[in-house]
Specification:
Strand content: 25-35%
Number of strands: 7
Order of helices and strands: HEEEEEEEHHH
């Protein structure tokens, strides 16, 4: 198991709708690495595209806030329905040190596959529902910065510009190292 590199705002994979997982045979080690990365970064959720992988898969662990919850893996998920509304301050591993008040549904019905390819449909609420929605947004190319008012965006614009600039510089350096120029 190893810790993967989390990509930051400005990396194009974060704005892309991720591909459906078809081959489940090699997922186990990758999922372990995703959990290791999420714990190392002190997050509660992590989407595959946040570590540069284009697939509809994310992991969540809110067990530190809810003894009834254990770490979860969600593959090829889709929100079937939702109800209610609540505002909560959210952070994002791909936009470090930025927190924004995001409005989301309180309760969702979510359909997904597990690592054994079995389909599930469950109702979620509270922090787990919020985390699922946050990670699904990632897999659909949506970030928390896209979900807030212009005023909220403006309040963090300097931090976000710096993150984007560093991310784009890193991509350029990686491209040059591989012999490509962007």
């Amino acid at each position: 198991m190893s810790v993967l590199e989390v990509v930051h705002y400005g990396n194009p994979i974060l704005k892309k709708k991720c591909n459906t997982v078809i081959d489940f045979s090699e997922l186990s080690n990758f999922i372990d690495d995703m959990f290791d990365t999420m714990y190392e970064e002190e997050g509660i959720g992590l989407a595959a595209n946040q570590v540069g992988v284009d697939m509809n898969l994310f992991v969540i662990d809110i067990s530190h806030t809810d003894d009834n919850e254990s770490p979860r893996v969600f593959i090829n998920g889709q929100i079937i329905s939702y109800e209610g509304e609540c505002v909560f301050s959210e952070g994002c591993l791909s936009i470090p040190k930025v927190s924004l008040d995001v409005t989301r549904p309180e309760k969702i019905i979510f359909k997904y596959q597990d690592i054994y390819e079995k389909w599930h449909e469950e109702e979620f609420e509270g922090l787990l529902a919020r985390a699922i929605q946050h990670e699904m947004d990632h897999l659909n190319g949506v970030l928390i910065i896209d979900l807030v008012s212009e005023m909220q965006r403006a309040s963090v614009s300097q931090e976000v510009k710096k993150i984007k600039k560093n991310s784009e510089l890193k991509l350029k350096q990686q491209s040059i190292a591989r012999g490509f120029v962007l």
